[in-house]
Amino acid sequence: MPDATSERCRGCGAAHAAGAPAPACRAGFDRMLALEFELPAAFGPVHHLTVAAWQLQHPDGQTPAALHTWRAMVADALDGRATTDELRRRTGRRFVGPARVRDAAAVAPPWWPRRWPITAADAASPDDSSDDPSVGRDPAAHAHRVLQWAASVRATLDRAAPPPDARRP
Ligand SMILES: [Zn+2]
Predict the structure, then answer these.
(1) Cα separation of 63 and 94, whole Å?
(2) Residues with CB under 5 A from ligand 1 (ion)
(3) Is 106 exposed, middle or buried (0-12, 13-18, 19+ CB in 10 A)?
(4) DSSP character for 119?
(5) 62 alpha carbon to ligand 1 midpoint, in Å?
(6) 2 in a domain, yes or no?
(7) Structural domain of 105
(8) Other beta carbons within 10 Å of 165
(9) 119, HSE (Cβ side, Cα atoms, 13 Å)
(10) pTM recorded for the entire structure
(11) CA–CA separation, 89 vs 137, rounded Å?
(12) Is the per-residue pLDDT at 165 higher than 70?
């Protein structure tokens, strides 16, 4: 694949597809969210992980507390310490309003990774150009990709800095 593009996502390092207005990660994330909202019974169970993995890979503008919460959420979900419903409730409690999550001036800690083995572009459906509408719409395959993505986000963060106490209430 020719690498004529020099633009990369500031958060996750994903490249822009040639001529695309946004990095490939954004398109992948939008595609996953669309599936999870369109067919919540099938695709929704991993929605909290999709959102948390995305936020962790795009940390600028988020408060340290928000980043801590996303990180703990991924760990708790992957380790089976919290059910999907619990994770949703926790998010609702912590993030009452967007003002508490977003801080335009906030930048991630200097050690925060800027390149990741798996980005949202990789985690989304591998082939969205297919004419076959069933491609990329297998819930089990979707869940598998999101879980792998979240696990790699966690491992990348843990390599960069030891995990904070994820069990803190
Ligand atoms: Zn990105």
Answers:
(1) 12
(2) 9, 11-12, 14, 25
(3) middle
(4) -
(5) 15
(6) no
(7) 24-160
(8) 7
(9) 22
(10) 0.84
(11) 27
(12) no
Distance 169 CA to ligand 1 centre (A): 30
> How far is the centre of ligand 1, averaged over its atoms, from the C-alpha of 97 (Å)?
24
How many separate domains does the chain show?
1
Examine residue 166 and state whether it is found in any structural domain, yes or no: no
What does the alpha-carbon distance between residue 152 and residue 52 come to, in Å, rounded to a whole number? 12
- Mean pLDDT over the full length of the chain: 83
Query: At residue 2, does pLDDT exceed 50?
Result: no
Q: What are phi and psi of 8, to 5 degrees?
A: -130, 155
Residue 92 within any structural domain of the chain: yes
Dump pLDDT digits (tens) for 16-45: 777 777 788 998 999 999 999 898 888 888
Query: What distance in angstroms lies between residue 124's CA and the mean position of ligand 1's atoms?
Result: 13
Residue 23's pLDDT is: 84
Neighbours of 42 (CB within 10 A): 15
How much distance in Å is there from the Cα of 115 to the middle of ligand 1? 9
Which whole-number Å values give the CA distances from 161 to 12, 49, 101, 111, 164, in the listed order? 17, 20, 22, 7, 9
Q: How far apart are CA 167 and CA 18, in angstroms?
A: 43
Tell me the CA–centroid distance for residue 27 and ligand 1, in Å: 10
Strand, helix or coil for residue 163: coil
Is there a domain that residue 142 lies in? yes
